[in-house]
Design brief:
There is one protein chain. With 85 residues, the chain is of the alpha+beta class. The protein is 20% helix and 41% strand. It contains one helix and five strands; from the N terminus they run H-E-E-E-E-E. The chain has a five-stranded antiparallel beta sheet, with helices on one face. A hairpin with a 6-residue loop joins strand 1 and strand 2. The chain starts with a helix and ends in an 8-residue tail after the last strand.
């Protein structure tokens, strides 16, 4: 679980990412991926260009169609974030 400071930082990054989405920035997202066959899972990192932030389904949508639930995100990186953290 993320601490309060980490949650606030992630929230700021998601807000900025929503503003940058029309420019389709390339991001790296580390998130929890549940195991489909048994209990547990693993943290994985996906990279790609963002298409949009889907506020209805609470997901990050990539240009290739991949969706990542915002609730599963641990870390979010993008060159455009600069010194945001």
């Amino acid at each position: 679980e993320l601490g309060d400071g980490a949650i606030e930082e992630l929230d700021r990054k998601l807000l900025l990412l929503g503003e940058l989405a029309p420019e389709h920035p390339k991001i790296a997202v580390t998130y929890y991926q549940p195991d489909e066959k048994k209990d547990g899972g693993a943290y994985v990192t996906a990279t790609g260009a963002v298409k949009k932030i889907d506020d209805v389904q609470c997901t990050i949508v990539f240009m290739d169609g991949k969706r990542i639930a915002i609730a599963d995100v641990l870390e979010l990186g993008c060159e455009r974030f600069g010194d945001l953290s």
